[in-house]
From TrEMBL:
Cofactor(s) for this UniProt protein: FAD
Assigned keywords, A-Z: FAD, Flavoprotein, Oxidoreductase
Pfam family, one: Acyl-CoA_dh_M
Signal peptide: none
Domain of life: Eukaryota
Every Acetyl-CoA dehydrogenase-like C-terminal domain range: 478-594
GO molecular function annotations of the record: oxidoreductase activity, acting on the CH-CH group of donors
Domain Acyl-CoA dehydrogenase/oxidase C-terminal: 303-460
Organism: Triparma laevis f. longispina
Family that this chain belongs to: Belongs to the acyl-CoA dehydrogenase family.
Domain Acyl-CoA oxidase/dehydrogenase middle: from-to ranges: 185-284
Protein name, entry field: Acyl-CoA dehydrogenase
């Protein structure tokens, strides 16, 4: 029977299964968990009014269910369009940029639903943290990055509102948030990569106040063009006489009355063919090939462009972390659905029934599912916490956010990719086939370790700069906040042991940080930074351990804990993360303190010969 069942669509196989377990409510997202995270950990996030939160999360879920047109699994067997594979089935092409023909209808429906105006006072007027949770839901079915058009646009609009002149805001902001135009961030160049100090694109004043002529090239710009909407508004870095500056560069110039004018002088030269996230064209392009330069408008002051651009970059880093956590959770939902349906193997216990059982009953499968839960839900909590800090005006919260930002971007990107690995493993041979969506989700998620600064860049920022920010006050604040959580949960029977474990790991991390910072102060910078990636993961494990301690404490103290599998699952996932991941932090810290890195003594010749 199983051999026959495996040859037919997975949805139909459910009828052949006699399991008593129920699959997840949605294979795309888990709005109940997001709602719980937003409401149940007041020490991390100011709780939202439930009358606001659940309806908007449900609206996002309804959008996914209505426009997901089922999901990749079913669409393999049914000739229906599959939005989550827009780019995967039809990668973007250049000259001109061409996307899957259904991209525009999907994006239009997103606009019509009001999601581009989530933070607009004239629209939904949602708090930023809640809008991030909504983005997590809507992107859960579209991991190919197609909704990245609007994520980038939202962040570009926020940057313009923060740093742009009143004239630029009045002319461009409304069109960005009402879904008329899209936005991008244009930072890197072919020769510069992540080293933005090396960019060569130049901007010179045109003679009109605030207007510049820009010549040069840009690389790795997502959404640089698409042919979907009338205008694309670039937030672009270029060098002036006073240093790196930030400019607004429109695809089409805008007249004083708001109508579109002439095409600006830049050309899309090609697209980068990525392994994943193919629903969003990633382009390389040049400015000023046909004239004295493309027209751009200064945002902020000359020479302070990086300071302005960090506003958008750091917001995008939160979204990258959320996107990675979403991929991790999506993989969990898919593998849970499969594990409930798939009947295979028998119990290895005396006197047990001889009939096959659902694989979710096997301990090794439960281990792989717990691993995914620990990483994806812990990573999402960290991202939502960072989003809430970005809304705060308190100096201490802003300082803490400085430390957490490299973790938010990098930790979910690395460990939720690991979660996707286990999701594929749960499905066995089916996991790496295109009959199931997990191989695509893995490819889509792999890009997040590189998006908005590689993991290596983030680790150098954390150890080389953030540990010493404000004379070390920022990192001390992080350690003290973790310590306060340990103290707060130490007397609860359900979390007392966890508190002690986290306190021990935090103490070792503090000692290691002091050791590495002292090394750098003595001039041994290369030796210290050779361990930056391991250090980032250690700090990230402590930060996510903190998130899980808070979740476990909130779950265990809930009056419904004894009757709720959901709440009990939170505590079990926390214990699993502590047992399998946080427990490694003291050992890593000991090694970083007591050994000389082999990396620093390795030369290129050692690797080439």
């Amino acid at each position: 029977m199983l051999r026959i069942a495996n040859k037919i669509p997975h949805r139909a196989r459910r009828a052949l299964s006699s399991t008593a377990h129920s699959p997840p409510a949605s294979r795309f997202c888990d709005i109940n968990d997001l709602n719980w995270q937003l409401h149940s950990v007041p020490s991390l996030i100011t709780p939202f009014d439930d009358s606001m939160t659940m309806p908007i999360l449900e609206a996002a879920e309804n959008f996914v269910n209505a426009h997901g047109h089922l999901d990749p699994l079913f669409d393999v067997h049914e000739s229906k369009f599959d939005p989550s594979k827009i780019g995967d089935k039809s990668s973007p092409t250049a000259s001109p940029i061409t996307l899957h023909p259904e991209t525009k209808p999907l994006l239009d429906k997103y606009v019509a639903a009001g999601f581009t105006q989530m933070q607009d006072p004239e629209g939904m007027n949602l708090p930023y943290t809640l809008s991030c949770a909504v983005n997590a839901v809507t992107s859960s079915a579209f991991t190919s990055g197609v909704l990245g058009h609007w994520t980038l646009t939202q962040c570009a609009a926020n940057l313009l509102a923060k740093h742009g002149s009143a004239e630029l805001v009045s002319k461009y902001h409304v069109k960005l948030i009402d879904g008329s135009w899209t936005g991008t961030m244009a930072l890197s160049e072919t020769q510069a990569g992540s080293s933005l100090l090396e960019i060569t694109t130049k901007a010179t004043p045109s003679g009109t106040p605030g207007e510049y002529k820009i010549k040069g090239n840009k690389m790795w710009t997502s959404g640089a063009d698409h042919g979907l909407y009338d205008n694309v508004i670039h937030m672009l870095l270029a060098k002036t006489e006073n240093g790196i500056s930030l400019f607004l560069v429109p695809k089409n110039l805008v007249n004083d009355d708001g109508s579109l004018g002439a095409r600006n002088d830049y050309q899309i030269n090609g697209v980068n063919h990525k392994m994943g996230c193919r629903g969003l064209a990633n382009c390389y392009w040049s400015l000023g090939d046909e004239s004295d330069g493309a027209t751009g408008y200064l945002i902020g002051e000359e020479g302070k462009g990086l300071n302005c651009m960090f506003f958008m970059m750091n917001e995008m880093r939160i979204h990258v972390g959320i996107g990675a956590a979403v991929c991790g959770k999506r993989g969990l939902q898919e593998s849970l659905t499969y594990a409930v349906d798939r009947v295979q193997g028998r119990r290895k216990q005396p006197n047990s029934p001889s009939k096959p059982i659902p694989i979710i009953e096997h301990n090794d499968v439960k281990r792989m599912l717990l691993q995914q839960k620990a990483y994806s839900e812990g990573g999402m909590m960290l991202c939502l916490f960072a989003a809430s800090l970005s809304e705060s005006t308190a100096k201490s919260d802003r300082l803490l956010l400085e430390v957490l930002t490299p973790l938010v971007k990098s930790w979910p990107s690395e460990w939720c990719l690991e979660a996707n690995k286990w999701a594929i493993q749960v499905l066995g041979g089916y996991g790496f086939t295109r009959d199931f969506p997990l191989e695509q989700i893995y490819r889509d998620n792999r890009l997040n370790m590189i998006h908005e600064g590689t993991a290596g860049i983030q680790s150098l920022d954390l150890l080389g700069r953030k540990t010493m920010l404000a004379d070390g006050a920022a990192f001390k604040l992080f350690l003290s906040r973790v310590g306060e959580a340990c103290e707060r949960h130490s007397s609860d029977p359900a979390t007392g042991t966890l508190s002690a474990q986290l306190a021990f790991a935090t103490e070792k991390l503090a000692d290691t940080t002091l050791h590495l910072v002292t090394k750098m102060a003595k001039g041994e910078v290369d030796e210290a930074l050779a361990s930056s990636h391991e250090y980032l993961n250690a700090v990230g494990h402590v930060a996510v351990g903190w998130m899980w301690l808070e979740q476990a404490g909130a779950a265990a103290s809930n009056p419904a804990f004894q009757e709720s599998s959901f709440l009990q699952g939170k505590v079990l996932a926390a214990k699993f993360f502590y047992e399998h991941d946080l427990s490694k932090v003291p050992e890593v810290c000991s090694r970083l303190r007591n050994s000389v890195s082999v990396v620093n003594s390795t030369t290129a010749s050692h690797l080439l010969h």
